[in-house]
Amino acid sequence: MTSVASPAHPSSAASPPSSAAPPSSQRVAVLTALVANLIVAGAKLGAFAITTSSALLAEALHSFADTANEVLLLVGARRATRPADLRHPFGHARYEPPRER
User: Fold this and answer.
1) 32 within a domain of the structure (yes/no)
2) 83: helix, coil or strand?
């Protein structure tokens, strides 16, 4: 008789998440977009300072909001890599229950 290991095994909850993981292509894409949005927001803010155009100020704020969204994406992606524990037996990534047929 063989036993099947439970995803909520206590030893998996004791090990801390690894922070030395190589960056994924998704992470690289989000970081690239974050840097690009910061540059664009800075350029728009500079143009606003020169022209005092309210449209440029609105666009700069919109670019800063996009940057904040990318920071949230990075935080969420990092949290999703945490291993399973007693409270989250399937891990912290997205889980969909099986569908009825």
Assistant:
1) yes
2) coil
Does this model's pTM top 0.70?
A: no
Q: Quote the CA–CA distance of 69 and 34 in Å, as a whole number.
A: 9
Nearest to 77 by CA among 29, 35, 37, 14: 29
Tokens representing 85 are: 């524990």
**Domain assignment present for 4:** no
Domain housing 42: 23-80
pLDDT in tens, 61-80: 999 999 999 999 998 888 88
- Looking at the structure of the chain, the number of domains it has is 1
Contacts of 88 (CB under 8 A, 6+ apart): 82
Which amino acid belongs to residue 73?
A: L
28 domain-assigned: yes
